[in-house]
Design goal:
The protein is mostly helical. The chain has 5 helices and no strands.
Length: 86
Protein backbone atom coordinates (compact mmCIF):
# COMPACT_ATOMS: atom_id res chain seq x y z
CA UNK A 1 0.00 0.00 0.00
CA UNK A 2 2.64 2.50 1.05
CA UNK A 3 5.03 1.38 -1.70
CA UNK A 4 2.35 1.80 -4.31
CA UNK A 5 1.75 5.35 -3.07
CA UNK A 6 5.45 6.18 -3.32
CA UNK A 7 5.57 4.70 -6.82
CA UNK A 8 2.72 6.93 -7.90
CA UNK A 9 4.26 10.02 -6.34
CA UNK A 10 7.79 9.53 -7.60
CA UNK A 11 7.01 7.94 -10.95
CA UNK A 12 9.28 5.65 -12.89
CA UNK A 13 13.00 5.82 -12.45
CA UNK A 14 14.74 7.04 -15.60
CA UNK A 15 16.72 4.35 -17.38
CA UNK A 16 20.45 4.89 -17.26
CA UNK A 17 22.94 3.35 -19.72
CA UNK A 18 24.19 1.03 -16.95
CA UNK A 19 20.65 -0.37 -16.66
CA UNK A 20 20.71 -1.60 -20.26
CA UNK A 21 21.65 -5.25 -20.74
CA UNK A 22 24.30 -5.67 -23.41
CA UNK A 23 24.38 -8.97 -25.23
CA UNK A 24 27.12 -9.97 -27.63
CA UNK A 25 25.70 -11.21 -30.94
CA UNK A 26 25.97 -14.94 -31.66
CA UNK A 27 28.23 -14.42 -34.70
CA UNK A 28 30.71 -12.48 -32.58
CA UNK A 29 30.64 -15.13 -29.84
CA UNK A 30 31.38 -17.82 -32.43
CA UNK A 31 34.18 -15.78 -34.01
CA UNK A 32 35.86 -15.08 -30.66
CA UNK A 33 35.78 -18.59 -29.18
CA UNK A 34 39.56 -19.14 -29.63
CA UNK A 35 40.38 -15.82 -27.96
CA UNK A 36 38.02 -16.55 -25.06
CA UNK A 37 39.63 -19.96 -24.62
CA UNK A 38 43.08 -18.34 -24.58
CA UNK A 39 41.94 -15.81 -21.97
CA UNK A 40 40.52 -18.60 -19.81
CA UNK A 41 43.71 -20.65 -20.18
CA UNK A 42 45.82 -17.67 -19.09
CA UNK A 43 43.58 -17.07 -16.09
CA UNK A 44 43.72 -20.75 -15.15
CA UNK A 45 47.51 -20.65 -15.40
CA UNK A 46 47.66 -17.59 -13.12
CA UNK A 47 45.28 -19.19 -10.64
CA UNK A 48 47.37 -22.37 -10.51
CA UNK A 49 50.60 -20.58 -9.59
CA UNK A 50 51.91 -21.62 -6.17
CA UNK A 51 52.12 -18.80 -3.66
CA UNK A 52 49.65 -16.56 -5.42
CA UNK A 53 47.70 -15.95 -2.21
CA UNK A 54 50.90 -14.88 -0.43
CA UNK A 55 51.59 -11.85 -2.65
CA UNK A 56 50.32 -9.48 0.03
CA UNK A 57 52.56 -11.05 2.67
CA UNK A 58 55.73 -11.59 0.62
CA UNK A 59 55.38 -8.52 -1.60
CA UNK A 60 56.59 -10.73 -4.44
CA UNK A 61 54.79 -12.31 -7.35
CA UNK A 62 55.35 -16.03 -7.89
CA UNK A 63 57.70 -17.16 -10.63
CA UNK A 64 55.94 -17.16 -13.99
CA UNK A 65 53.29 -14.63 -12.96
CA UNK A 66 54.38 -11.85 -15.29
CA UNK A 67 54.72 -14.19 -18.27
CA UNK A 68 51.22 -15.52 -17.65
CA UNK A 69 49.90 -11.98 -17.22
CA UNK A 70 51.50 -11.00 -20.53
CA UNK A 71 49.77 -13.98 -22.22
CA UNK A 72 46.48 -12.84 -20.69
CA UNK A 73 46.92 -9.29 -22.00
CA UNK A 74 47.86 -10.58 -25.46
CA UNK A 75 44.80 -12.84 -25.53
CA UNK A 76 42.58 -9.96 -24.40
CA UNK A 77 44.00 -7.68 -27.10
CA UNK A 78 43.31 -10.39 -29.69
CA UNK A 79 39.76 -10.67 -28.36
CA UNK A 80 39.18 -6.92 -28.68
CA UNK A 81 40.53 -6.97 -32.23
CA UNK A 82 38.27 -9.90 -33.15
CA UNK A 83 35.22 -8.16 -31.69
CA UNK A 84 36.05 -4.92 -33.49
CA UNK A 85 36.58 -6.65 -36.83
CA UNK A 86 33.39 -8.73 -36.66
Amino acid sequence: MVLALFKRLLGRRPKMPRDQITRIPRAVRKATEPQVAAIQAALDEIAALPGLADIALNKRAPKGFYAAAARFVAAYDAYVEAVAST
